[in-house]
Write a structure and sequence with these properties.
It is built from three helices and no strands. By secondary structure, it is mainly alpha-helical.
Length: 152
């Protein structure tokens, strides 16, 4: 047995086995180191994303405070508008009663037409017709109203 342990072939095979096991171990460790490196990159990128997300959440909180303030202002404006609408409704009710009174008063305010206005309009129409006849008379022997030469 001592001979086997000290033989050259046994020593070479044992050393070769150790080298192969160490090579496999080194290859596995190298793969694990690459995975750790990739995980580190992902974690650094995730940290940047969390920082950006934190800033965005803070901005959203500020925007929500502004929106709450604006909604409160709108609520006050709606209350004011409600009061204005009530006043306008009261005014329209008053106008309705005034219009009813006016509608009742209109029949008693009829106007009597005089017949001499109709006669005067008829006479005016005849007078204007005679003037047109005078204007259309012959000018210097030409029977046209477009004559540009006048006789004196």
């Amino acid at each position: 047995m001592y001979r086997r342990v000290n033989s050259d072939r046994f020593m070479v095979l044992t050393t070769l086995g150790i080298v192969i096991v160490m090579g496999i171990f080194t290859w596995v460790m190298y793969g694990m180191a690459q995975q750790v490196f990739t995980m580190t990159d992902v974690m650094v990128e995730l940290n940047g994303s969390f920082q950006t997300m934190t800033k965005d959440i803070h901005q959203m909180g500020s925007n929500m405070e502004i929106m709450t303030s604006n909604i409160n202002d709108m609520n006050g404006n709606l209350v004011s508008m409600n009061g204005s609408m009530a006043a306008m409704n009261t005014n329209i009710d008053g106008m309705t009663s005034d219009i009813s009174t006016m509608a009742e008063s209109v029949p008693s305010m009829t106007v009597r037409h005089q017949s001499f206005w109709v006669q005067r309009l008829f006479k005016l129409r005849e007078y204007l017709a005679h003037l047109v006849g005078f204007i259309m008379r012959r000018t210097c022997g030409v029977a046209s109203a477009e004559s540009r030469v006048f006789c004196i």
